[in-house]
Amino acid sequence: MTKERIVVALGGNAILSTDASAKAQQEAVKKTSESLVEFVKSDKDLIITHGNGPQVGNLLLQQAAADSEKNPALPLDTCGAMTEGSIGYWFQNAMKEVMLKNGINKQVVTLITQTIVDKDDPAFGDPTKPIGPFYTEDEVPGLKSAHPDWTIVEDAGRGYRRVVPSPKPVEINEYPAIEAISKAGVIPIVAGGGGIPVVKDGDRLIGKEAVIDKDFGASKIAQLVDADKLIILTSVGGVFYNFGKPNQEEIFDVTADEIQKHIDNDEFAKGSMMPKVQAAVAFVKATGKPAVIGALDDVKEIIAGNKGTVIHK
What are the residue boundaries of the Aspartate/glutamate/uridylate kinase domain, all occurrences included (predicted)? Predict the structure, then answer.
């Protein structure tokens, strides 16, 4: 019998808290892996994707601080690849350690993933994707003076952040390899930060100064590898209508068509829940299979079907 194939998309809370040190992030990844191992224990074929917004933003700051004629700063697409590798390295080690503690001897591999986008995507003229740390309102004038090419916006009531273009995924260049790795019984860690945004130029793939939304990247991968379910794990228990208001309502079971109405009415926060529900709906409409949005801490209950928001056809 074929195992159920699950694509899991992890939010930034799975990797980074308030401490941006490598040690603290590795500890966060270890804790996340202790939740993810529940999918393996439940005999699922697991494909892991993750965000990298804070990490790639911090790396860009380091690059800018050290920029010189002899040691020029690396571009955003290359920094994206570097964080795919570093976060993947942390997850490979953590997942292997946690699985061995649970008597499971499976291989885990990180695949540097390129996400093909349309060179004419309007997103290139409208930066919206937050990267890097949060800033206070008082810090913004100084940042704009030091980095006149940056676009800085308020982010969902949590502070101010730099934003960059976020084109939609058209194709995942390495998806046949992802599918082959999964079929071989190996756990692939793929499309970190949504994958490296590239455009096609004949036989060449050219990196772009942009960041793919990891939820849209996960949705596209889940469609291409014929996943049975897309699970988007975040810091909240699921999807809420009127979130943060006195009349907020948690949604446990909803059709893609129904939640699309709320998307069309612009009812979800653009920097947080909106891309998650859009990505989930895209997967459901393309495949007819369910997507779940729920809390990382509730993985056992999500697997049992007792927690999270299930979006279905």
Answer: 5-293
- Spatial distance between the Cα atoms of 225 and 166, rounded to a whole number of angstroms: 23
The CA distance from 170 to 29, in Å, is 29
Residues taking part in catalysis = 12-13, 129, 214, 276
* Enclosing domain of residue 12: 5-114+167-227
Distance (Å, whole) CA 91 – CA 281:
28
For residue 258, the number of C-alpha atoms closer than 13 Å in the C-beta half-sphere is 12
User: Is residue 153 domain-resident?
Assistant: no
Residues 246 and 132: their CA atoms lie apart, in Å, by 31
Taking residue 301's Cβ as centre, other Cβ atoms within 10 Å add up to 15
How much is the pTM?
0.91
CATH number at residue 79: 3.40.1160.10
Count of structural domains, the chain:
1
Q: What is the mean pLDDT of each run of 10 residues along the chain (313 residues)?
A: 90 78 93 96 96 87 89 93 96 98 97 97 90 87 88 86 92 97 97 96 95 96 97 91 89 97 92 92 98 94 95 97
Residue 17 lies in a domain: yes
What is the number of other CB atoms lying within 10 angstroms of the CB of residue 255?
14
